Q: What sequence folds into this?
């Protein structure tokens, strides 16, 4: 099938609520593309406008982590959208075969997806349907955002061409404020991304319920179970940061660009591991000897040593933890220092000039100065001798008086 005398369709690779996606070839430019054909929506008069909005929204986004749009038009009474063909698969799974990724790969997904969201948010676009099926991974591991079919502009006061009061998006990844009927915002996309990352780590979304209403209430007032309690081996910094993405209040979630910077910097790798004990004879009171200090990793610090992953790079690495990305240890002693005990400072020679009068040494040969020196150095012995002398004197005086 040839669409618009240019795009030859080969295989249907996906179907959504608004259309179906075909793998195709652009016979004019000789490249592989994806063509999305809009399905008939006789009961939804706004479907064509929403499809056109998707094309306009995606076309104004040019970013390595957003699926690019090449063309848009009408063919045989149907709207079509020509997009970049991602040679890979989405992150969607099935209940019988949940997709589980290690922290290393989830961090890359977070960095790439957040970078794509940040690009959309800078253009005033809110995706509103972040879910595993809309995160595509190409052959070299680059994650790209797809399907802006229900996106809306932040400054658009309308309901983005949907029925008033209708909630659009997938309930498993719906932000609390949207469950309450409030407008979507960039923070809503961040919450949805947090739900996706949680699912990739644990194999299940943060909230599940038998009914849609119960699910919405869980998003509103139920705290997610930390992944560590579900047996996921995760650095504590990663878990803490992930839970901030799932904060109930939008203002408590970090912006998308900060998320991209934090994960691409490798800060998530920091472990709260104790430093090796060292013998330190002298230490500051109140601080345990040999205690390690650790400063929190700052986001946006670029590449960490040994990472092999630059911020925004397109490959999901399989390497182990970065070197130098853990807690900052107490600086080791220089060679030859070790736990050496500090040598006592040399005694200061007393100086007559400026010394206190009571501490000055008197000239030798003076009996008064000798007694004073003796009383200063041996106060107890001096007092005992003085007491004996006084007792003898009183005894002599008493005997003379009685006689």
A:
């Amino acid at each position: 099938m040839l669409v618009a005398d240019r795009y030859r369709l080969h295989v249907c690779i996906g179907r959504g609520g608004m259309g179906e996606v075909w793998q195709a070839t652009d016979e004019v430019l000789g490249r592989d593309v994806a063509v999305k054909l809009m399905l008939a929506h006789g009961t939804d008069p706004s479907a064509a406008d929403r499809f056109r909005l998707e094309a306009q929204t995606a076309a104004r986004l040019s970013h390595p982590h957003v699926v690019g749009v090449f063309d848009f038009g009408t063919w045989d009474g149907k709207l079509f959208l020509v997009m970049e063909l991602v040679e890979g698969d989405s992150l969607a799974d099935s209940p019988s075969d949940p997709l589980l990724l290690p922290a290393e790969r989830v961090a890359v997904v977070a960095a790439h997806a957040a970078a794509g969201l940040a690009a959309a948010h800078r253009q005033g676009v809110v995706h509103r349907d972040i879910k595993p099926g809309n995160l595509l991974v190409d052959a070299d591991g680059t994650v790209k955002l797809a399907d802006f079919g229900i996106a809306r502009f932040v400054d658009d006061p309308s309901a983005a061409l949907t029925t008033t009061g209708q909630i659009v998006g997938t309930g498993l990844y719906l932000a609390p404020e949207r469950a309450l009927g409030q407008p979507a915002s960039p923070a809503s996309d961040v919450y949805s991304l947090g739900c996706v990352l949680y699912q990739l780590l644990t194999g299940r979304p943060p909230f599940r319920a038998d009914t849609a209403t119960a699910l919405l209430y869980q998003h509103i007032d139920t705290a997610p179970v930390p992944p560590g309690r579900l047996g996921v081996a995760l650095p504590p910094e990663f878990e803490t940061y992930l839970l901030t993405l799932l904060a109930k209040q939008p203002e408590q979630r970090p912006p998308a660009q900060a998320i991209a910077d934090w994960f691409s910097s490798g800060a998530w790798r920091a472990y709260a591991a104790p430093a090796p004990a060292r013998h330190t004879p002298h230490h500051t009171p109140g601080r345990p000897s040999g205690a390690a200090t650790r400063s929190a990793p700052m986001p946006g610090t670029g590449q960490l040593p040994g990472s092999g992953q630059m911020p925004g790079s397109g490959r999901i690495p399989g390497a182990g933890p970065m070197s130098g990305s853990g807690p900052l240890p107490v600086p080791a002693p220089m060679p030859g220092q070790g736990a050496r005990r500090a040598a006592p400072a040399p005694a200061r020679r007393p100086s007559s000039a400026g010394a206190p009068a009571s501490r000055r040494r008197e000239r030798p040969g003076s009996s008064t100065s000798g007694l004073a020196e003796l009383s200063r150095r041996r106060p107890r012995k001096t007092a005992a001798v003085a007491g004996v002398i006084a007792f003898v004197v009183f005894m002599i005086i008493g005997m003379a008086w009685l006689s």
Summary: Residues 379-402 form the longest helix (24 residues). The radius of gyration is 38 Å. Residues 134 and 145 are 6 Å apart (CA to CA).
